[in-house]
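Quick one, tokens below. Sequence please?
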């Protein structure tokens, strides 16, 4: 028992000495923050379809009246972002989607699905206010349900074959979107 206390005391002293070095203190703090971030991300996406799942095919109308079918987009990775016009985080993420669309050009598809809106005017107002230059599809309640989307924004990265490579809930940076697209290519 006394040996255990002595060993614990030595370990505690060594830890206090190590914590006096800034790089150890920062390293431990960053590791804890990263673990918390990963835990929250895993919790938020726990009900979404798993990686490798084939995304359900759909056909939706754009704001300009065109019909877009998901299966017609195969051959390139797809960023598929679900958002709602009343969502503040969606507004913050909108410029990232526009920037990524401009950056990837024709190497990938970036499109969004507006859901949980009162009428089409709400969606048009959002697009105008956010200066969104990405395709906006008018979603129906069946599609978010089939992908188990219940929080906004929710973004799926699809492989060129139409399989879900990754799903995220909440704000995603430009760098985060580009990294996920690169992994799906």
């Amino acid at each position: 028992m006394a040996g255990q206390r002595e060993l614990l005391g030595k370990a505690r002293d060594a830890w206090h000495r190590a914590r006096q070095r800034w790089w150890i203190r920062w390293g431990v703090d960053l590791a804890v923050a990263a673990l918390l971030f990963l835990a929250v991300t895993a919790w938020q996406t726990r009900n979404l379809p798993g990686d490798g799942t084939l995304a359900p095919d759909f056909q939706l109308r754009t704001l300009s009246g065109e019909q877009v079918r998901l299966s017609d987009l195969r051959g390139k990775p797809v960023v598929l972002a679900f958002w709602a016009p009343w969502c503040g985080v969606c507004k913050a993420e909108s410029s990232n989607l526009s920037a990524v669309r401009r950056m990837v050009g024709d190497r990938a598809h970036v499109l969004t699905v507006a859901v949980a809106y009162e009428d089409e005017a709400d969606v048009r107002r959002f697009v105008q206010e956010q200066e969104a230059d990405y395709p906006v599809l008018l979603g129906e309640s069946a599609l978010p349900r089939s992908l188990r989307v219940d929080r906004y924004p929710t973004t799926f990265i699809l492989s060129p074959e139409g399989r879900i490579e990754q799903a995220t809930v909440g704000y995603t940076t430009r760098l985060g979107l580009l990294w996920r697209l690169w992994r799906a290519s």
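The longest helix spans residues 22-44. The chain has six helices and seven strands.
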